[in-house]
Specification:
This protein has 258 residues and is mostly helical. 65% of the residues lie in helices and 3% in strands. The two termini are 44 Å apart. Belongs to the peptidase S54 family.
């Protein structure tokens, strides 16, 4: 996202490069323009032209992406980001073509994707508290409610399409957690695709361990504890803390008290 922003800003004074990037990377609301450039449904969520726009989105992505990752794992962050952006873009297309006669209003920005992560965190952890500058501690459910209310209030300022995209991302984050709580991970196809690509790009190396003339030494109890701790921390990092079994949670709690 930052790369596209920088390229747009260091363009010549004619603005040709910036205009070219904006036209080809944004999501076009008009259905005929969208058919000519359908990739905009993906590239728009990785494109910014205003400094405050990218700063606000990247800060929120950092904060809520880390909370989401801590509880649900690394592998779900990018899939939900993409899904939130796609659903926000589809909502944008529908509103402009059904309510505004298909006027061509290009859109860029990661707000719908970030909103999906924010609302997913608030739905999963409604009473989780975060500290805000000048405000203090606030629970995620109240922060999410305030953000949505502010978005709805700003409808009067004319950014209807942008707000609709935000709401599309927010609804995606909410439904994602509801489905996940019922045992259905709607991001699983994307998770599978990314994991498959990683396996293809990093093929396994086959090697035969050399026989050592030395006698094998049995690991100590402390080494076994450290090994299991590392395995559980890797599991949390990949799949989130919810992936731990009750026995594994109890073991980690016992270790933290020693």
């Amino acid at each position: 996202m930052g790369t596209v922003y920088l390229i747009g800003r260091i363009a010549p004074t004619t603005g040709f490069v910036s205009a070219f990037l904006f036209d080809n990377l944004s999501l076009h609301a008009n259905v005929y323009a969208f058919i000519r450039k359908p990739w905009g449904l993906l590239t728009y969520m990785f494109t910014h032209l205003e400094f405050l726009h990218i700063l606000f989105n990247m800060l929120n992505l950092y904060w809520f992406g880390n909370i989401f990752r801590s509880f649900l794992g690394n592998q779900r962050v990018l899939p939900l980001y993409l899904l939130g952006g796609i659903m926000g873009g589809i909502a944008y297309l529908l509103v402009y073509n059904l309510a505004f006669g298909g006027v061509n209003a290009p859109m860029i920005g990661a707000s719908a994707s970030v909103m999906a992560l924010l609302i997913a965190c608030a739905t999963k952890l409604p009473n989780y508290e975060i500290g805000l500058l000048f405000i203090g501690s606030i629970r995620l459910k109240w922060l999410a409610l305030v953000v949505i209310i502010l978005d709805l209030i700003s409808l009067t300022q004319g950014n209807v399409g942008g707000i609709v995209a935000h709401m599309g991302g927010a609804l995606t984050g909410f439904l994602y957690i509801k489905f996940l709580n019922n045992g259905n991970d709607i991001c699983q196809p994307l998770i599978w695709l990314f994991n498959r690509r990683m396996r293809v790009e990093t093929p396994k190396r086959s090697f035969k361990p050399k026989k050592s003339p030395l006698k094998l030494v049995k690991p100590s109890q402390e080494e076994n504890k450290q090994l299991r701790l590392d395995q559980l921390l890797d599991k949390i990092n990949d799949n989130g803390i919810d992936s731990l079994s009750p026995e594994e949670r109890a073991w980690l709690k016992k270790m933290s008290q020693e």
